[in-house]
Amino acid sequence: MSTEPSLELQGAVVSMLKNTGSLSGLIGQRVYDKPPASPTFPYVTAGDDQTIADHAECLEGSVEVNANIHVWSRAIGKVEAKKIAGAIVTALNGADLSVSGYRLVLIEHTATQHLDDPDGITSHSVVTFKALIDET
Q1: Low-confidence spans in the chain with pLDDT less than 50
Q2: Is 104:133 a contact under the CB 8 Å cutoff?
Q3: Which of 4, 53, 97, 111 has the most CB atoms around its CB within 10 Å?
Q4: Number of Cβ within a 10 Å radius of residue 23
């Protein structure tokens, strides 16, 4: 079992995103932890997260993971990035993911932010989820 549940959750999230037809129709298989030096747009990055332990006696082994998924688009305007962000929410909100070594209690969408990247040509959306995870 991994000592960091966010790593196992990231694997499950990436697998779900790569295997969701409505999303792969928009980005193909371009879901990365770290994108290549010259990526093809649009693409998604996952792995920006925070794990919060719950040390209450009745919840020992339970954690909350707040995970961000980033959308990157070079299409004019934010339409493409927003469509991709919406497909991510549809795929993951309430999903029944298999998280190796753990039991996913819940994954829920908590926020989406749409930004202009400082480069002046890239649209950037940040889709945030909260996951509650128990050790098995």
Answers
A1: 1
A2: yes
A3: 97
A4: 22
